[in-house]
Amino acid sequence: MSNPAVGTHAMVASENPTDTLDDAIWSLGIHDAHCHPTDTMDVVPEIPQRRMRTLTIMSTKEHDQELVAQIAREYGVGKSSVSDLTACRVVPSFGWHPWFSHLLLDDMKDGGDGVKISKSEHYSSALTNEPTEEFIATLPEPKPLSQFIAETRKYLEEFPSALVGEVGIDRQFRLPNVSAGPDEKHLSPHRVNLDHQKRVLEEQLRLAGEMGRAVSVHGVAAHGILYDSFAYLFKGHEKIVRSKRTQKRGPYDFEGDDSDAEDAGPKPFPPRICLHSFSAPPDFIKTWLNPKIPAEIYFSFSHAINVGYGYEKFPDMLKLVPEDKLLIESDLHIASIDMEHHIAAIVARVAHDRGWKLEETVKQLGKNWNKFVYGSNAVSV
After folding, report:
1. What domains lie within the chain, and their CATH numbers?
2. What crossing angle do the helices spanning 223-234 and 194-211 adopt, rounded to 10°?
3. pLDDT, tens digit, for every residue of 51-60?
4. CA 47, CA 59: separation in Å to the nearest integer?
5. pLDDT class for 18, splitting at 50, 70, 90?
6. What is the C-alpha to C-alpha distance for residues 226 and 46, in angstroms, rounded to an integer?
7. What 3-state class would DSSP assign to 332?
8. Which residues pair with 187 in a beta bridge?
9. DSSP letter assigned to residue 187
């Protein structure tokens, strides 16, 4: 989900001359790794018409968890009622976005102590700049985090291919001032406390680890904090990195070698992580590619965020990403023809900046998406 500060981006890609691809290229299978079609439900029936092979659709708050499930029941991979095998399908993702994390009351810290706090106490703790009682009155009763995690577990059980997402940390987002008059500011001075965001993220990551699911992660102006949140869960599970001396001894097992970590049972962290619309400084790519990290890290790029707004470091950043860890997305809120334009534009841009042919680009991105979603069980979709 993009930052609201940049405004709507529905037409950015469609103004680009590279927003069309030949039928032969589309037929190879192009996968949108992150999008939000439930934001515009009246266009959802168009999903089978889209030329992408698959849409990986995200949920963000209480309102859209069931909407994502409904779309997956109708158009999901392996569950679709659409008879046309060439029609676009969806893979669902269930998660709570950091913009809305204040709407969850953390009753799971230290295993849950059963202590009940009031709505006012919760929001005073979860938000910065001490909200007034008048502002708190405009907010709903918070939902217990334990209840949300239990509901998410049921959705993941219903959909064996489902991801956890969209989750993450955001230091820029400010809550809207819903009671603002025509001459008042429409953004409040309140942000979600970072410690609260981290707690909500942590419990979702632990659930993803428990169930062996990939996650799609949002990070804005909090790249170090986001990495540290994962590193905390990685602790004690780091991969053994063999020295050059032992590598010369050949492909033998070494004590402590955790190369098959994905098959070694549940962990407190997800096995595969997608950093969506990745916009951190390029050096963070190197940080995330540390060979000791016991999870597979993928980097996804969108035309709207990474190209459409003139991010000048995109070519340099793209070249740092291993070819098998690269994904593309629309991050679009509507399953209209604009979604195709966004995807075509980012495919063309990746091909240009990596020096790849379009056919080669689409095939590699397809392999990557399948591995990200399905792990060792990846199949052609």
Report:
1. 4-241+257-377 (3.20.20.140)
2. 40
3. 999 999 999 9
4. 16
5. very low
6. 35
7. coil
8. 176
9. B
